[in-house]
Amino acid sequence: MWTRDVEEEILATCRELDIGFVAYSPLGRGFLTGKIKSLDDLQEDDWRRHSPRFEQENLEHNLSILKKLGEIAAEKNCSLAQLALTWLLAQGDDIVPIAGTKRIKYLEENIKALEVQLTQDDLDRINEAAPMGAAKGLRYPEPSMQTVNR
User: Which end of the chain is more exposed for a tag (fewer CB within 10 A), N or C?
Assistant: First the structure.
């Protein structure tokens, strides 16, 4: 939901070739859980502090998207993470999310995404709140010139 650039070419090619698609980091590096509201929510050594999408200006913009999604999640009586996973599953039976977690409670929460029902109106509202290209900031930091020149 936060990185939808695969939809145009990659997903279409996978479907043309009848290949399943594994959605890596479907919770947007934890952003789509709603638990990251500022850089203060990240440990000092957390690599996301150096990720463009978590830079202050970009984060503020991205939080505005999350707020809209949070309203939909509240209406559906589910967590933001469950909404994101349910939305992803609604994109097709050929998509499998890999939602990594270190804690059983989050695994159980993620599994409950299967119980959330989204209508076409819900999907339209989610797509309106988080359209392709809505997230601000690059997905990964650009390589430094030192790395490029090696």
Answer: C
Residue 58 has pLDDT above 80, yes or no: yes
91 vs 94: CA distance, rounded Å: 8
Determine the length of the chain: 150
Residues 129-149: tens digit of each pLDDT: 999 888 886 776 777 644 554
Instruction: Choose the CATH number for 5-11+18-134 among 3.50.50.60, 3.20.20.100, 3.40.50.300, 3.90.1150.10.
Output: 3.20.20.100
Ramachandran sector of residue 141 (left: φ over 0; alpha: ψ -120 to 50; beta: rest)? beta
pTM given for the model: 0.85
